[in-house]
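As a warm-up, study this chain.
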Amino acid sequence: MRVTLIAIGSRGDVQPYVALGIGLQQAGYRVQVATHEPFAAFVQGHGLDFAPLHGDMQAILNNPQWKREKVGIISGLRQIRNAMAPLAHAVVADCQRICQQTDALLLSTLAMFTALPAVQQLGLPACGAFLQPGTPTRQFPAFLFPQLPGWLGPVTGGYNLITYLLREWLIWQNFNHALLAAYRTVYGPQFAHAANPLSQWRQQQRPCLYGYSPLVVPPPADWSAVNHVTGYWFLDDEQWQPPADLVRFLAAGPPPVYIGFGSMTNENPQAMAHTALRALELTGQRGILLTGWGGLQSVDLPSTVLQIDSAPHSWLFPRMAAVVHHGGAGTTGAGFRAGVPSLVVPFRGDQPFWGQRAQALGVGPAPILHTRLTAERLAHAIDQAVHDQTMRSRAAHLGQRIRAEDGVAHAVAAFQRLLPGQPAAAAGAPTRLSLVG
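Now compare it with the structure written out below.
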């Protein structure tokens, strides 16, 4: 049986689906990951089939307009719309082609918009595979919205529930013009007035796998049984060997503080690097700066700071005194698993949500929006992360418990329960199975 995972986004968005794909392949499925061309070698290097989607998220994130945008619901959605609208027809057509060659699908959030018409037209079984909570609940708001203060308790549940419906509406209002035109061209006039895919998915009670730990966001009591919080989908590179300069630096003193912002970009990375260096100087901490897509750069580094291009979080983070990052879902999970305090500097999207979770769990200081980042604020938060023994103890305990989880195995088991009576390695013609709960 062939299973396809469609993942749209940056490297941090794609990597968990590769981990999940490996788990499915080990369970006997033939697995294909459909994502952007720059990730072809990454997918195939892990033994999975690759199907190309149009678009290059690194190029989008490096756009100067993207770098200038501030954190916010409307501005964030506008950024995504402006970046993705020109690609809508091509990606919808890609998904139609891919869906004609598979037996079952797992879809990331953005893939819902480009692939759901094919799911409906072909009668394909499909399962949501998400990295952030998206099913409506009264327990906390959708990740694009702020939490209400505690003194508003009686109205909080209703507000939280409404934020999910408003999020669905806002996203669809941003995308629907380009998507409906693409649906009409690719699938015919009957799709010219298609409903919001997120709303359809929810109303039809289709199943969702959530790739984060229930220790971090417990499953809400008002979720139905079709929603499965499985644990993180970690992908560890067991073959990676650290460069000699990194080994020497780690051995030369106490654990340093990691500072890096993944795929997030900044209009002035040089200034951000100087802010990071000044904060390390104020705290007396050693540091590791990750360049990455985020572009942290500094040509004049003190001996107490090492700059690296990349390193697996699973290897690097446990060796740190604390980690400072952008709050992407995967990076946040890696920080939690490492058992060291996490300080989140969110840029957009779900990142403020994960920063708030780190603070609420007591494993990190309050998040600092990147627009409010100063050397003094960063230094104060680093001091707290390094010296607050209660925070450090909580982080270590959470890390120990997350390391005992196996999110990929739980996700594969949940997927198999949603396919009753169907052997993973079934051969022959494509089958049409129901995953609707």
